[in-house]
From TrEMBL:
<dbReference type="InterPro" id="IPR002202">
    <property type="entry name" value="HMG_CoA_Rdtase"/>
</dbReference>
<dbReference type="GO" id="GO:0004420">
    <property type="term" value="F:hydroxymethylglutaryl-CoA reductase (NADPH) activity"/>
</dbReference>
<dbReference type="InterPro" id="IPR023076">
    <property type="entry name" value="HMG_CoA_Rdtase_CS"/>
</dbReference>
<dbReference type="InterPro" id="IPR004554">
    <property type="entry name" value="HMG_CoA_Rdtase_eu_arc"/>
</dbReference>
<keyword id="KW-0521">NADP</keyword>
<dbReference type="InterPro" id="IPR009029">
    <property type="entry name" value="HMG_CoA_Rdtase_sub-bd_dom_sf"/>
</dbReference>
<comment type="similarity">
    <text>Belongs to the HMG-CoA reductase family.</text>
</comment>
<dbReference type="GO" id="GO:0015936">
    <property type="term" value="P:coenzyme A metabolic process"/>
</dbReference>
<dbReference type="InterPro" id="IPR023074">
    <property type="entry name" value="HMG_CoA_Rdtase_cat_sf"/>
</dbReference>
<dbReference type="GO" id="GO:0008299">
    <property type="term" value="P:isoprenoid biosynthetic process"/>
</dbReference>
<keyword id="KW-0560">Oxidoreductase</keyword>
<dbReference type="InterPro" id="IPR009023">
    <property type="entry name" value="HMG_CoA_Rdtase_NAD(P)-bd_sf"/>
</dbReference>
<protein>
    <recommendedName>
        <fullName>hydroxymethylglutaryl-CoA reductase (NADPH)</fullName>
        <ecNumber>1.1.1.34</ecNumber>
    </recommendedName>
</protein>
<dbReference type="Pfam" id="PF00368">
    <property type="entry name" value="HMG-CoA_red"/>
</dbReference>
Amino acid sequence: MTIPSHVIEMLQKVRARFQPDRLKQRMLPSDEQFTTLRPVRKASAASVARYWERLQPTASPQDRDVLADPITMADPDRYSPNIENFIGTVKMPVGIIGPLRINGLNAHGDYHVPMATTEAALVASYARGAHAATKSGGISTALLYEGVIRTPAFVFDSLLDAGMFVEWVVREIESLKAAAESTTSHGKLVSVEPMVDNNVVFLICRYTTGDAAGQNMVTIATHALCEDIAARCSVPIKAWYIEGNFSGDKKASFLGLVTGRGRKVSASVTLPAQVVERTLGTTVQAMLDYGQVANLGSHLSGQLGAQAHFANGLAAFYIATGQDAACVAESAMGITRMEARGDALFCSVTMPNILVGSVGGGTSLPSQSAGLNILGLKGAGNGAALAEVAAATCLCGEISIVAAIAAGHFTRAHENLARHR
């Protein structure tokens, strides 16, 4: 067996930097005294000051001025529902793209889309895609399905008990639905699907969540459902867990790709050849040729779905509008298609796991509230439209990056807008 050269190089670097005996001592557990950081839920000027005292000497007064700036400290308690141990706010660059014309079932109009990112060239790329799409008449969007899932797990002594449990759940479904929905005025339990693995049963509990993303909503509702099961079920349960790690929460999964978790949206636009050539600087055939290679690469590498960079657009959009940014891990799955339609190029994305809300979560924070106001989609009644805007934005990014790589402009654009700006 041959040891890879990079492993040998790494070991040589470690040995050159540290003496083995001293390194061994350094890496032993330490019993030095320390002061526990106690979580504080309710933020105040006093609590923020205490935390900054603790951060000395590594953090300077200038660091404090940047994070705990006067606007933030005018009302620190406004952040209490969203964070613990509050010390200030982070300012990120926010750019806009648009107008992005969307002709959707829920989103209909010309939108300026805020995107928060530190990656130069990203907003310019999405803006170019939005310009091409809008010049082509706009992007058609449709919310196809919605359902946020939580998957509690129940453990039994035997496969027989697991089967009897499933039979009991089926009989009691209406009572379980009532228990879950008693915790929320907006969430609705639309299905419970059992998944049996010998003596372990996962219940796929799927909810609609109104205009909220609904992660906390479905957790609380499912907990009530599980407690009702534990109290009334005649089959002995050894243990139950609120989440059996089956739902795909903040993880890319086949379940999410196939059945969806959140809002499933499809978006499409047909780009005339003239728009592709004049706006994107390439040709329909060149984009199709590269798209074929990129699609092959997706399959050969085992990606879940086939797309270029949904995560870029989603992360920037989620941060700017107060969504749970960690949900990008599951939201950035789906399928991008590009096909010839006569002389034109048909482009579409289908995204099964868009987890966004126009209410709840971080949507009421000052900066994020402003982002939603820019879109005109803050508050009740706008959750579905927000999901369609998210998908349309991702389509813009797919169009632009495929055009850039097909034309050989990708590296030059990043050099001009990022490295050598």
